[in-house]
Amino acid sequence: RPERDVTDTALTLDQHLLHAARETGLDTDLVILLNSIATACKAISASLRDGALAGVLGSHGSQNVQGETQKKLDVIANDIFLEHCAHSGVLACMVSEELDEVQEIPARFARGRYVLFFDPLDGSSNIDVNVSVGSIFSILRLEDVPETTDYATVLRAGVEQVAAGYALYGPSTMLMLSTGDGVRGFTLDTGLGEFRLTHDDIAIPAAAGEFAINASRAQWWEPPVRRYVEECVQGESGPRGKTFNMRWVASMVAEVHRILIRGGVFLYPMDEKNRTQGGKLRLFYEANPMAFLVEQAGGAASTGRTRIMEVEPDQPHQRVPVILGARDEVALIDGYHAEFD
Ligand code: AHG
Ligand code: MN
Ligand code: MN
Ligand code: MN
């Protein structure tokens, strides 16, 4: 058996966060919140694993505020987030894809300065076909514990995020996290019941050889998006001079994870069909947290016309076009939008 240095043991997420609190001054209230979120993600992971045996697949029969039919697991995952985060003592309020209004903290619990935005189950159309799904979260810190938690309190641009991340429920469960000093990946050690640091120094290469877009919407694309994709698929004989690969999982978490691990670019652009809604993906709990992670990994995230994290919000469920990943690729697509406008 080869000699093993005991100091090589992968830190648990909690060990990592506690070290960061001591060594870099990471706010301990944020550590408490991240611990609660990680616990929620472990609980969701557990409730997903038994699938049809546990009777958790299929539709819940209800609709959320954006008119989507909720899956049973959308509702279960939302309840799990609320249950594990409400009592943290550090939250001012929460905003979820599955809740119409800002979620107040029950009076029996202490309140704090943090606001948590979450997409409890991302990619829920993939649940019944047993394809990877995830949970996404974004965290803001207010100056003070607010008296009220109306929309004015929570509607801040993404540049104000202090942490963001997601859990990916794939062949293994992973938690990817940034607190503003790069992106780290933690893999769920199912024996220990803990996330453990397995991916350090995540970096997205500036150039890409892979793009992701729902091509069934080509009929409604704007010219800059059409031009970009057409040039990619022309391959070696086209203006890009190389062959691009294409992927579409339909779980944003899985697409962003692929980009953080091996590079590429992801587009859910504004098109003729979704223009009146401003796009498809939601700013607070899909676009902003993923933009934060991607920028922290050296990539870029844009609407095609604006840096996503600089979009000034006006409502908690607002949608935005999303183009993110490899820096040079996003710059090229932004350039095509500028030429077109
Ligand atoms: P959600 O399941 O949280 O509603 O999000 C689904 C999102 C996102 O994960 C994915 O990128 C996109 O919707 C898929 O859209 P299409 O069905 O148009 O492919
Ligand atoms: Mn949904
Ligand atoms: Mn989603
Ligand atoms: Mn969702």
Describe it for me?
The protein has 341 residues and is of the alpha+beta class. It contains eight helices and 17 strands. The strands form four sheets. Strands 4-3-5-6-7-8-9-10 form an eight-stranded mixed beta sheet, sandwiched between helices. The longest helix has 22 residues. The chain is globular. The model has no long low-confidence stretch (mean pLDDT 96). The site of one manganese (II) ion has 3 residues, from loops.
Can I get a quick summary?
It contains 8 helices and 17 strands. The chain is α+β, with helices and mostly antiparallel strands.
Write the layout of secondary structure elements.
Layout: H1 13-24, H2 28-49, E1 59-63, E2 69-71, H3 72-85, E3 91-96, E4 103-104, E5 114-122, E6 133-141, H4 151-154, E7 161-169, E8 173-178, E9 184-189, E10 194-199, E11 210-212, H5 223-233, E12 245-247, H6 252-262, E13 265-268, E14 281-282, H7 283-296, E15 300-302, E16 319-320, E17 322-325, H8 327-340
Parallel strand pairs: 3-5, 11-12, 11-13
Antiparallel strand pairs: 1-2, 3-4, 5-6, 6-7, 7-8, 8-9, 9-10, 13-17, 14-16, 15-17
The structure holds 2,5-anhydro-1,6-di-O-phosphono-D-glucitol and manganese (II) ion (3 copies).
Residues 74, 97, 119, 121-122, 124 line the site of one manganese (II) ion.
